[in-house]
Amino acid sequence: MISAMKKLMAVTVGTMVQEDPREKTRLEKQEYRLREKMIPKKHRRLYKSMMAGRMKRNKEAWLLGKKRKRYEEEEMLKRKAQKKEAIKAALASDC
Asked: Organism's domain of life (predicted)?
């Protein structure tokens, strides 16, 4: 009887529980929305205007970054063209 009990109490290998990262982000967003709903009505307009301002600033920064990237690419192409012209001029003067 004791040997049978020992067999039942044997330790088995466990399995790792893998958390889904998408599920985690979904839950965080859901909790955030619920927290927003808990804001009292008299403060809700102020909060919404603050969030709108934040979104506007983020969008503006994103657009300026995009514009900067485009400008830098154009400048790089101009520099490459100037370099090619200089090489062609140097080769032409050597011949």
From this structure: Eukaryota
Give me the tens of pLDDT residue by residue for the chain, a chain 95 residues long: 677 777 777 778 888 989 999 999 999 999 999 999 999 999 999 999 999 999 999 999 999 999 999 999 999 999 999 999 999 998 888 76
Q: Per the domain annotation, does 16 fall within a domain?
A: no
Structure token pair of residue 35: 């927290």
Domain membership flag for residue 66: yes
The count of domains in the chain is 1
Q: What global pTM score does this model have?
A: 0.59
